[in-house]
């Protein structure tokens, strides 16, 4: 928490992006002193911005000095198209993550909340099959590409940094973040196209999460009493499909997959741990934005 007599200060990396921008908007509305540290200047600046190359450790350390907590959302989320792309993505994501975590330890930050990913479970499931669904944090992770491996590495780094320095780390295994804005590349308004081709969303098992729920989950993680290095699935309650999960699984995989869903169209990411330890209950879903 912030020192007595002043507002809590939170630095957020990647605040010029979509999910990071949603987190900034939420924190500013809550009266938090927010600083956006990013390589790119935001289109709409609502808080102080420090241009920072997260691969430059000295710059990162200067940018986070005096911060109470850090939210690390920066990274390259693009899929791997070839080995060279994968190598660049892993280097960028892993080095920037280490620099943020390391600077947090050096400057006395007490908690880091960062964006891990649903991809660690084995997405996009092209050459493998999930062992059971919904996916839970206790499941063995099986990253299948450079992006997912970089996220798995971030979870390992967090666990080891906690052992070394005592910081609290909260990793949010975010599902595919969607936005209630027409024309956005990840808009809810694209969902009817997915209904025509359900296999187009097999890559992440038809799951998603609203950007506003990502912001709420981040706020809850910042304010939690958790110690250690924890990870949580963050997703909507349901899938973005209109058909039941057993039909989707039969369409997607040649072999049966063990299932234990709360209801027939429940998310393939189990969020009960986040509900129990963070108090996170998603408020938004696709049917709030488009007609089912």
Kindly report the CATH topology: Rossmann fold
Element-by-element helix/strand order: EHEEHEHEEHEEHEHEHEH
**Which percent bin holds the helix content?**
25-40%
Number of strands: 11
Q: Can you list the strand order of the major beta sheet? A: 3-2-1-4-5-7-10
| Overall CATH class | Alpha Beta
The CATH architecture name reads: 3-Layer(aba) Sandwich
Low-confidence stretches at least 5 residues in length (pLDDT < 50)? 1-5
Q: Identify the overall geometry.
A: globular
Number of domains: 1
Q: Give the class from helix and strand content and strand pairing.
A: alpha/beta
User: Which percent band covers the strand fraction?
Assistant: 15-25%
Report the major sheet. 7 strands, parallel
From the alpha carbons, calculate the radius of gyration and give it in angstroms.
Answer: 19 Å
Taking the alpha carbons of the first and last residues, their distance comes to 42 Å
CATH superfamily: NAD(P)-binding Rossmann-like Domain
The overall average pLDDT, rounded, is 95
Counting H and I runs of at least 4 residues, what is the number of helices? Answer: 8
What kind of oligomer do you see? single chain
Characterize the structure shown.
The protein contains eight helices and eleven strands. The strands form three sheets. Strands 3-2-1-4-5-7-10 form a seven-stranded parallel sheet, with helices on both faces. Strands 6-11 form a two-stranded parallel ribbon. A two-stranded parallel sheet has the order 8-9. It has a single domain (9-178, 209-236, 268-285), classed as NAD(P)-binding Rossmann-like Domain (Rossmann fold). Residues 1-5 have low confidence and may be disordered. 45% of the residues are buried. With 292 residues, the chain is of the alpha/beta class.
């Amino acid at each position: 928490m912030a020192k007595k007599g002043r507002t809590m200060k939170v630095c957020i990396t990647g605040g010029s992006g979509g999910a990071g921008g949603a987190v900034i908007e939420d924190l500013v509305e809550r009266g938090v002193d927010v600083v956006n540290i990013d390589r790119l200047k935001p289109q709409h600046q609502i808080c102080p911005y420090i241009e920072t190359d997260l691969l430059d450790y000295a710059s990162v350390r200067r940018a986070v000095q005096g911060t109470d907590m850090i939210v690390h959302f920066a990274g390259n989320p693009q899929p791997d198209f070839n080995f060279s792309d994968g190598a660049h993505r892993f280097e960028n994501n892993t080095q920037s993550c280490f620099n943020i975590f390391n600077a947090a330890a050096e400057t006395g930050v007490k908690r880091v909340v960062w964006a891990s990913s649903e991809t660690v479970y084995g997405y996009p499931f092209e050459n493998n099959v999930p062992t059971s669904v919904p996916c839970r944090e206790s499941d063995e992770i099986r990253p299948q590409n450079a992006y997912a491996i970089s996220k798995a590495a971030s979870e390992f780094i967090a666990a080891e940094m906690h052992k070394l320095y005592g910081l609290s780390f909260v990793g949010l295994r975010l599902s595919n973040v969607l936005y209630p804005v027409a024309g956005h590349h990840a808009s809810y308004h694209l969902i009817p196209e997915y209904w025509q081709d359900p296999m187009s969303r097999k890559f992440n098992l038809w799951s998603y999460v609203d950007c506003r729920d990502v912001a709420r989950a981040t706020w809850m993680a910042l304010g939690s009493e958790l110690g250690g290095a924890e990870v949580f699935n963050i997703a909507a309650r349901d899938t973005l499909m209109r058909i039941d999960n057993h039909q989707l699984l039969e369409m997607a995989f040649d072999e049966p997959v063990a299932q234990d869903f709360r209801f027939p169209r429940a998310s393939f990411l189990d969020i009960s741990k986040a509900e129990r330890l963070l108090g996170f209950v998603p408020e938004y879903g696709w049917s709030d934005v488009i007609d089912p």
